[in-house]
Write a structure and sequence with these properties.
alpha/beta, Rossmann fold, seven-stranded mixed sheet, five-stranded antiparallel sheet, 7 helices, 12 strands, binds S-adenosylmethionine
Length: 219
């Protein structure tokens, strides 16, 4: 097990790992491995788009720990659980709209003090901005038509100046018709018009087809 170029992420060959914040507990049936008295949790890029982003070449400062983070579209909490491993002192607000997905997210959050779940619609940030306050990292993975617009509105509501973020863009939720590069260009334009600079744009194939990850910063 060796350190990787991303803070607190380890690798063994091509496999990525985090140190398990809940030793002995699997979040989604993943492999656990004990090395040198520490338990590591396999982070599968086929199951987490953030791991796919790392595997396909995310910038090395991507996972520098923020003070607080807002995660939109947390679902059952698979990827959020890895951020919880990586950022033990960060408040990670995890927004999920589906009451069904929220049940396991809530159970996970009860075991992990840095995960703060919110049953809410990411298209209505005014409903949770007071509770979340100011964050310095925004992560979004929601399959909606106006993904860049949702990201911008949440940034306006909650992201501190100088804040960073990741937009996991699901191309076919934006449109079935326009070509993939056109959809990505439009999303970039929306973000750039809102004051973001795009630090990286990475396709997530073969792990997640039809997705691109955009790492951004707002000065
Ligand atoms: C692809 S899944 C997320 C997977 C998760 N990010 C992970 O990697 O573990 C997308 C999630 O976004 C949620 N979602 C879709 N639209 C949403 C919205 N407007 N507000 C909040 N959550 C939303 C869906 O219910 C679904 O659980």
């Amino acid at each position: 097990m060796e350190p990787s170029r991303w803070s607190s992420v380890y690798r063994d060959g091509r496999d990525l790992f985090t140190v398990n914040a809940e030793p002995g507990v699997r979040v989604r049936g993943e492999e656990l491995r004990v090395v040198g008295g520490k338990e590591y949790r396999l982070w599968d890029p086929f199951r987490s788009k953030l791991a796919a982003f790392l595997a396909n070449g995310a910038p090395s400062d991507l996972l520098t720990a923020p003070r607080a983070a807002l995660y939109l579209g947390a679902a059952h909490g698979t990827t959020a659980s890895y951020l919880s491993d990586l950022w033990p002192s960060t408040e990670i607000y995890a927004v999920e709209k589906s009451p069904i997905a929220f049940v396991p997210l809530l159970a996970l959050s009860r075991r992990r003090a840095n995960l703060l779940p919110l049953l809410a619609d990411a298209q209505l940030p005014e409903r949770y901005r007071a509770e979340v306050g100011e964050v310095d990292f925004l992560y979004q993975d929601v399959a909606q038509r106006d993904q860049a617009g949702i990201f911008r509105e949440n940034a306006d509501a909650c992201l501190a100046p100088g804040g960073r973020g990741v937009l996991m863009l699901k191309i076919r939720s934006v449109t079935q018709r326009r070509a993939v590069p056109v959809v990505i260009r439009e999303a970039r334009r929306t973000l750039e018009a809102a004051g973001f600079s795009v630090a990286a744009e990475v396709a997530l194939a073969p792990f997640s087809r039809d997705h691109a990850a955009l790492a951004v910063r707002r000065d």
